[in-house]
Amino acid sequence: MLDFTENKLSKSLSRRVEKRFTWQKEALKTCAAFFCLLISAFLNFFLLTVIHDIVPREPLPDLVFMLIPQQRWAWVVGDIFSTLNAVLGFTCVLLHKKRLIVFRRVLLLGGIMYGLRAVILGLTFLPPSFQNRDEICLPQVNRTAMYATEITTRFVTYVVTLGLTSGQDKILCGDLMFSGHTVVLTIMYFTLLQYTPRRLVYLRYLAAPLTYIGIAALVISGGHYTMDVLVAYWLTSHVFYAYHQVFEMPRVERTKAPLSHLWWFWLCYWFESDVPDGALRNEWDWPLPGPICIHHFVQRISDKLQ
Fold first, then answer.
1. Would you call 52 a catalytic residue per the annotation?
2. pLDDT, tens digit, 9 for 90 and up, residues 82-113
3. Most Cβ neighbours (<10 Å): which of 12, 28, 114, 239?
4. Intra-chain end-to-end CA distance of the chain, in Å
5. Which residue among 169, 181, 285, 303 is the active-site one?
6. What's the pLDDT at 53?
7. Are 150 and 79 in contact (CB under 8 A)?
8. Which of 111, 101, 117, 109 has its CA nearest to residue 242?
9. 277 a catalytic residue
10. Model's pTM, two decimal places?
């Protein structure tokens, strides 16, 4: 009887140690994914601080601008809707039972998209799309001895505000191709579609207008050309669903799949090496240790939404 009890305790302890090790490994991967996103975002901010003084000032023709006068208030709408979509998306991630995996995927996808954006920003310089650009864009400065100080000030400002510029009188201009706001809106929208319980359709009905009205507002405001938001949406949708398609395959088949030839596949392979095969089951779970009543409440809701 004593041997049986000791064996049972040993197995229980072994499971706890294994579970703790797995959690630590997943947390490490999530931190690495966050670091990747941080590098991509900071690179975008830095490039904008430099590009602002390089881009020409005459806007390109755009069909939407010809049909609809630019409305500066719409830029605030785009910022607000991006923030709301992000709050909804990250709430969904936080409540998901496999939150570390989902959160890591969101971070990686953001890192991929902002990395692509940084490459394009550094290669081709499009003029600001604002028609009243002198009222909105900060003046361009010459590269003097104080230029490094100016760049540093701009960079810190964008890091602190996370790139949200609706509250500023004048902004840096030139980060157009492609729209970072649209990337955020689209990733958060697809995250809600992919990771909410099957019966939570009302949340999806809320997220869809937030996404598409937010994207439209970015163009109507004159903050982006129409092609900026379209390219951002198309690229993000392709990368998002290609990522999920390849990494929801059985692990033994992933490296042989046609999608494994995509440039980002091997960058993400390590992050997905311990994730179970197939799509994640969209179950909710309260992320904190207590209170127990909240755990039971969230569990009941999750069961009803399956």
1. no
2. 989 999 999 999 999 999 999 999 999 999 99
3. 114
4. 42
5. 181
6. 85
7. no
8. 109
9. no
10. 0.88
